[in-house]
Amino acid sequence: PPRSTFAHKGTMGHACLICGSDGMMGAALLSGQAALRSGTGKLTIHAPRHGQLIIQIGLPEAIYDADPHDQVWSRVIDTTRYQSVGIGCGIGTNEITHQALKGWLSSKPEQPLVLDADAINLLSSHPDDLHLLPSGCILTPHGGEFNRLVGGAPDSWSQLTNAMVFARTHRVFLVLKGAYTRIITPQGDVLINSTGNAGMATAGSGDVLAGLMTGLLAQGLSPLHACCIGVMIHGLAGDLAVDRRGSQEALLASDIIDHLGHAFQAVHQSTDR
How far apart are the C-alpha atoms of 270 and 72, rounded to whole Å? Predict the structure, then answer.
């Protein structure tokens, strides 16, 4: 959506990312940078105490909220003041973190939610927690994470069928990442994205997508639109990055972030015609 001339950071949404753990603070930086590049007005990152310098030096535009634990996410935090929440990038699968995630989901959060990476892995390890998923939340697994969540599938069609059943059963949006990323709605409808390339098969690419979608949600986009626009822009930024970097092999997740602005520009130009 076009921005109002009179927009300011207070009107563009405040996103919250719960991310990072000892040795995985890069995931917090990547998802945080992508959230801010999405256009959200403000971003708070809740991360372990040892991550303070990394975040405040590496991403000065973000607000840092310290967890009392040095290395992992360990406690339920109040997120009612945020317009969206993203959880999972680099948080690890420590049992302390599982209890924090379970406790937070049990609080019945009402704001739009993205669950990625280790948040999904924790749900896979504790399937009894699946009933806590808020209706309309977004899960962003790659194929391996999704298979751990529901069980393996002999082929991609069977995996897609499993995803349709899961989305309908739990009333969630699934973003099944990969070549031609598939978005499955709570009604079981499937949308297929055509942007992106094999160079995006690199560490951190999923963190960028999770942060981007969390930032779009904070600006008031519906979960469906955040999924569609987020996946398309993410893939388009990857395509532009390959064009400008010269090869798929050399692509880094940070290159995708660097080209988000060009991807937004291309979309705006196409809609202005």
Answer: 43
User: What residues have CB less than 8 Å from 72, skipping those under 6 apart?
Assistant: 21, 22, 48, 91, 92, 94, 96, 97
Q: Rounded to whole angstroms, what are the CA distances from 266 to 256, 262, 269?
A: 14, 6, 5
Task: Name residues whose C-beta falls within 8 Å of residue 219's C-beta, 6 or more positions apart in sequence.
Answer: 1, 12, 13, 38, 39, 40, 41, 83
The torsion defined by the Cα of 261, 215, 171 and 169, in degrees rounded to 10, comes to 70
∠ CA(150), CA(112), CA(140), 5° rounding?
35
Between 273 and 121, where is the model more confident? 121
pLDDT tens digit string along 187-242?
A: 999 999 999 999 999 999 999 999 999 999 999 999 999 999 999 999 999 999 99
- CA 17 – CA 36 distance, rounded (Å): 11
> What gap in Å lies between CA 219 and CA 160, rounded to an integer?
30
* Residue range 121-170, pLDDT digits in tens: 999 999 999 999 999 999 999 999 999 999 989 999 999 999 999 999 99
Sign of the Cα torsion 127, 133, 135, 139 reads negative
270 pLDDT more than 90: no
Distance CA(103)–CA(99), nearest Å, equals 6
- Three-state SS string over 123-136 comes to HHHCHHHHHHCCCC
The greatest distance separating any two alpha carbons of the chain, rounded to the nearest whole angstrom, comes to 53
63-66 and 84-87 strand pairing: unpaired
